[in-house]
Amino acid sequence: MKKYRIFNKITKKWWEGEANSAQEACKQTGWMIGNCWIREYTEKGGWKNCKLEIKNKEVV
């Protein structure tokens, strides 16, 4: 599993947790993907931006 940090741009709240994918992590929050900034923890100990293909702004 990968570690993710998700920031909700509307509520200004953070969520951090583990999931198999960025989409699954966003689904765990219950937030719409279009309202979120998603970061993934790297093996080197830093955070990187996730690039998601958003078909609509809802969690699938």
Which sequence of SSEs, written as H and E, runs from N to C?
EEHEE
- The helix content is 10-25%
> In order across it, which strands form the biggest sheet?
2-1-3-4
Strand content: 35-45%
Provide mean pLDDT, rounded.
87
| N- and C-termini, Cα separation | 19 Å
What is the overall silhouette?
A: globular
Number of helices: 1
Poorly predicted runs are none
Structural class: mainly beta
Largest sheet: 4 strands, antiparallel
Count of extended strands? 4
What gyration radius follows from the Cα positions, in whole Å?
A: 11 Å
Number of domains: 1
Explained architecture:
- The protein is mainly beta.
- The chain has one domain (2-49).
- The protein is built from one helix and four strands.
- The chain has one helix at residues 22-29, and strands at 2-8, 14-19, 36-41, 47-49.
- It has a four-stranded antiparallel beta sheet, covered by helices on one side.
- β1 and β2 form a beta hairpin.
- The two termini are 19 Å apart.
